[in-house]
Amino acid sequence: MRFALRAAAAGNLxxxxxxxxxxxxxxxxxxxxxxxxxxxSESVASALGFPQEGLDTSTIEDTxxxxxxxxxxxxxxxxxxxxxxxxxxxxWLPKPGxxxxxxxxxxxxxxxxxxxxxxxxxxxxxACKAEGCSKGAVQYSVLCRIHxxxxxxxxxxxxxx
Length: 161
Hints:
Elements: H1 2-9, E1 17-20, E2 33-35, H2 41-47, E3 52-56, H3 57-68, H4 76-89, H5 104-118, E4 122-127, E5 136-138, H6 145-153
Antiparallel strand pairs: 1-2, 1-3, 4-5
Helix pairs in contact: 1-3, 1-4, 3-4
């Protein structure tokens, strides 16, 4: 792994896909294999004892470039951290030692809450047009916050006022 990361940082890693021996986080001394993109690389890697797909050369080089924003000549440890973070979370390492990102459900709930709050207050002088609703409509809509959320997001609103 150390050799592959250093080669990627120098722009000298041959094109292909890096495969790992397992889904566990690799270390610098983890043995891995780079398989050419020609044909069925997954079958070749699996036959060699490396069933876990890692990243393609271009993305490994990008993880090295990402590490450069923190260190001009990134250490092997930082190259590995940047690689693993991208490999596990499909996201760029935001800073060395960064915690893993929150689960998608938590992020979605936060984004939904921001959207819901941005709808603003309900007007008392304009009734929500949803059948049976006694709330007021939000500005620029004929629906209350809950019904406007549900119309736009196409799902039940998780927030109760």
